[in-house]
Amino acid sequence: MHKKDIMSSETMLYMPVYDSFGNLCTRVYEKNNEYISKLAPTKLLDYNLRYFGSSLRGAFDGSKMILGKLNKNPIIVDERGNILWCPSRSPLHPLCIWFAVHHIDEYSIVDKRRTKITFVNGKEIIVDISVKVLEYRIQRAFLLKYRLEKRTKHLLVQYDRVKVFQRMALNMLEDEK
Fold first, then answer.
1. Which of 46, 69, 98, 158 is the residue whose CA sits 20 to 30 A from 136?
2. Contacts of 135 (CB under 8 A, 6+ apart)
3. d(CA 122, CA 138)
4. If we measure between CA atoms, which residue out of 95, 118, 113 comes closest to residue 29?
5. pLDDT (tens digit per residue) in 50-98
């Protein structure tokens, strides 16, 4: 693993590609960058979720619990950052593309089975997924986010940040004495 394999809010897309040895890798599209990771898209996503304290299995299980048992469920990578990802097809399929929903600006029909996606940075790609299916996946992602927020709303503790930081600073000063 390389440091560059860690996703950020700038990461837009994981697209499967094969290297010259026939190994499944990932072309990573970021807002202002593009590179190849040696990990397959689903493995790269799982690596990132684990890095941030979760896992792909856990994200799928949570999504299934909230939306019901569906194939190709969206997942939440970071709830506070509104980072939702959805697959183009079954994540088990080697040609599965993963989209960061918050980076999709618009999409349009190319033909019955293909869609042109335009990202917020102007980058365009054509994918083998119908507009209706893509639209459905995006809607499911936002439904997942909405339902999770609704479930966790009562868990959020309201606090005054200034008071918390003042208390921390005072404690640190006392420890230094």
1. 46
2. 107
3. 19
4. 118
5. 998 899 999 999 999 999 877 788 998 887 777 899 999 998 899 999 9
Mean pLDDT for 91-118 is 95
> Hey, what amino acid is at 147?
R
Question: Which run of H or of E encompasses 99?
Answer: strand 98-100
Q: Which two tokens stand for residue 93?
A: 């399929």
The whole-number pLDDT of residue 176 equals: 63
Out of 32-36, 122-126, 164-168, which region has the weakest mean confidence (pLDDT)? 164-168
d(CA 113, CA 129): 5
* Sheet containing 114-119, strands listed edge to edge, beginning at the edge strand earlier in sequence: 104-111, 114-119, 124-127
40: CB partners within 8 A, 6+ apart: 16, 24, 25, 26, 94
* DSSP output for 10-71: TEEEEEEEE-TTS-EEEEEEETTEEEEESS-HHHHHHHHHHHTT--HHHHHHHHHHHH-S-S
Q: 164-168 contacts: CB < 8 A, separation 24 or more?
A: none
Q: Of how many residues is the chain composed?
A: 177
Give CA–CA dist 46/156, Å, rounded.
27
